[in-house]
């Protein structure tokens, strides 16, 4: 999950008292973690070895606060992530690991294009897995008070992996947010969804593509993936369409109901006319348009970023043989500073924008669309200078 605002797949809920256990002296915080681990049944000797060399990593905090790539518009973001080399490598890896993908399809029903897209974006097919010490990263983020409810359980999950012999506190490395392996899974996800895909008796996500891909597939399946169903399809939106009906929160019960109001697939026919579906415009009504089926929502369980999810879902369609999209001619968006100003103005009007971060997330999109509709502007949830000026 790289590095995508952190993954929802590990957003476990903790009691309020535990969620507040963060900050203060780092060594004191580690002592509290050790005491809790022992209360939960870990031996003192194992706990002492696990935490013996843990250190706060300020580089982790800098990475956590500098995810500027998510401020880029969809066409820019997707062109950066979907290179010709990545596309070709995806096709080659699809052929190379054909037997594994066939087993995944039988066991979990997850399409190979989806897993190939995540494998590409997470680690360039295993080539770039991150060199942050995993235990240091997790303890640092648990100590930090931004999201302790997410990362504190991961520390104890990492301790469990250590007890199993599947994690080395000194040598296990990965992404800055504590994810490990080719598809970047957090320790609790590994415990719950790890699969020995190559039959060697171990779940080795850093070096075994079979283990990594099957574990990722099992996790997606557990998060609600619907076997054999599509996730995204490019469509054409008519000029007179009511743009306020776009957005993931405005699904129709059947995809074919969108055809009745003038929306048609850009090529071919609807993948699944009887499935629920929404229309999304990642870069406004002058940019690409997609119909999103239920499996598209599962992508958000892997990553919270709308632009990342849409890019991964689109890349998955390309890896499955789909055509390149029509980029259209979208209106210029806002840079990060202007987006922050817009979020401040929206917040002042009573909208919950999910934080003043300059990122066009779901809450900001909803607020933008509501104000566009109020002001008589195209209500496509794409913020422009015209909207900012009007506010």
UniProtKB/TrEMBL annotation:
Enzyme Commission number(s) of this protein: 4.2.2.-
GO molecular function: peptidoglycan lytic transglycosylase activity
GO biological process, alphabetically ordered: peptidoglycan catabolic process
Extent of the signal sequence: 1-21
InterPro entries associated with the record: Lysozyme-like_dom_sf, MltB-like, MltB_2, Peptidoglycan-bd-like, PGBD-like_sf, PGBDSf, SLT_2
Keywords annotated in UniProt: Lyase, Signal
EC class name: lyase
Chain ranges of the Peptidoglycan binding-like domain: 336-391
Domain Transglycosylase SLT: 26-316
Transmembrane segments: none
One Pfam assignment: PG_binding_1
Cited SUPFAM superfamilies: Lysozyme-like, PGBD-like
Protein name per its UniProtKB record: Membrane-bound lytic murein transglycosylase B
Gene: mltB_1
